[in-house]
Amino acid sequence: MHFLVRKGKISILLKWLIGLCLVWYLLTKIDIAKVERAFARADLTWLLTGCILLILIRIHMAWQLKMVVQHQDVDLTTARAFAINLITGFYGLILPGDMSAGIMRWRKLSKPSGKGAEVLAALVFLRLINSTVILLFGIIALLIDNPFDNAVVSFTAIAFLAGMIVIYSSIFSERVAVRIERYFRDPFPGMAPFIWEKLRRVWSALAQYRVLSKSNLVKITSVSLLNLFLSIALFLILAKSLHLTIPIIALVWIRAMVLIIQLIPVSIAGLGIREGALVFILPIYGISPPDAMAFSLLLFGLIIVIGLVGGILEANEVLIEPLRRPLAENGPEEKMNRKR
Predict the structure, then answer these.
(1) Residue 96 has what pLDDT?
(2) Among 119, 138, 137, which residue's Cα sits nearest to residue 127?
(3) pLDDT tens digit string along 94-152?
(4) What pTM, to 2 d.p., does this model score?
(5) Between 83 and 99, the higher pLDDT residue
(6) Which residues make Cβ contacts (< 8 Å) with residue 12, sequence separation at least 6?
(7) Cα angle 261-23-281, degrees, rounded to a multiple of 5
(8) Which helix (H) or strand (E) is 19 found in, with range?
(9) CB of 91 within 8 A of CB of 104?
(10) By the 8 A CB rule, do 46 and 130 touch?
(11) Are 87 and 62 in contact (CB under 8 A)?
(12) What is the CA radius of gyration of the chain?
């Protein structure tokens, strides 16, 4: 057990080291003084507007999370969902890959209800909906505005789109789902029975979303669309704060690219990989490498702010609240003893 904990800490430090090394390498190729000047001339009004918009996006995401888990009969308030999303942002800073932080979100949501499979199904469904909306619009934007003039990029985008259609069909099409269930009726060779049973429970829980009414499906998808538009607006505002002009259609597919980068468990929150990608891409639109680096670091700065707030909330839940509970429970008894 101690070996696993030690190995996990080493892995986290290694991911941070990889990300920081990548950023350092980029800064050796870029004039750091120009990056500093880009931050120095940043418009604080636009930055403040971006922070307010980020809070609104997080609240909107919390409301959507509440709406999705309620279909699994899991009680959740928007305020609690908002707090869990912020805490997940904290773990996103100390765990490699967006998926690792997602495990902590699942734990926070499933622990009170004990419905682990149902909550996992809800999170898978939500991730699928949100990612599909972002990637779909990103692919369309990339096909319209392909700055690379490369058929491979277009082919990759179309392959991504085809893959999403297959995944969607497996979840929302009753006919396709039945065929999959027949194929995976028995456990895979070498797989433990309890793992297979848990996977079956998750698949059964996903069936709840197959029978969603069109109105509910449209509502959930509409929230994802609004989240996408708000996140693109946030990118645009951050660019404005640095006095950068980036085409909106480019921001659409760049937003999708950032999503994919954050899923790669090579560094923490895509640090270094995101910066390298933006330093490579944004000059195509007339943005200098130092300005592109400043824009990317600004995005990472928002991730850190969210993570720090989430860390405070998590510290309160893990360290402070357990100390308050005994005092609250013993309070009435102490009062009775004093009266005696």
Answers:
(1) 62
(2) 119
(3) 776 566 677 888 888 888 888 888 888 888 888 888 888 888 888 888 888 877 766 77
(4) 0.79
(5) 83
(6) 94, 95, 96, 268
(7) 55
(8) helix 2-29
(9) yes
(10) no
(11) no
(12) 23
